[in-house]
Amino acid sequence: xxxxxxxxxxxxxxxxxxxxxxxxxxxxxxxxxxxxxxxxxxxxxxxxxxxxxxxxxxxxxxxxxxxxxxxxxxxxxxxxxxxxxxxxxxxxxxxxxxxxxxxxxxxxxxxxxxxxxxxxxxxxxxxxxxxxxxxxxxxxxxxxxxxxxxxxxxxxxxxxxxxxxxxxxxxxxxxxxxxxxxxxxxxxxxxxxxxxxxxxxxxxxxxxxxxxxxxxxxxxxxxxxxxxxxxxxxxxxxxxxxxxxxxxxxxxxx
Length: 254
Fold this sequence. Notes:
Blueprint: H1 2-30, H2 34-41, H3 45-186, E1 191-198, E2 201-205, E3 212-214, E4 217-220, E5 227-230, E6 234-235
Helix pairs in contact: 1-3
């Protein structure tokens, strides 16, 4: 803008100089000064010197105007070149700015597409998360149902085991009572004259007197309901009674 303004000012100055030159040319051509012509046509030496001085003044003034015009023309050309260069730079900067604006628009469009893709994926993840949460709730409900079923089954099995233990204990008590009755009938003898059936086995020798409290064979735990082998026959006794073996031998564990 400054270069263009300077070029315009120089153009105005040049036009003023041209106008002065045109006016001078018209003035000389139309109405030349009489005294100047007389001085030029004079044969006197002094007049000749005056003529030369006058011509130098006139021509010098014209040359000065022409030099001013040439200088102004050169300055205007330089200012115009500067203005053209500035305009070219401005056009280049505008073109670069347009390219950057296009790149910015493309980046914004890409960012919008990416944002839409992210929103879509977030919605998809939220849907999957909801499905997982529903599946977790369903699995938790199924686990609770199975735990309740197992608890009921364990309670039923424990009750059945208690009933079985009670029945076994009742049966053993009945058998013990029966054996006690048999022992009382035979007196306090250690030898049995007739075999006695106890728990499915036949006792041929009674080492101590008293009723049988636990017979030989599998025995069920009264609380846990587990079954273990009972390799022997238990007789009732009091605290302080001696331990008696059914036969001679070495005691391995007591």
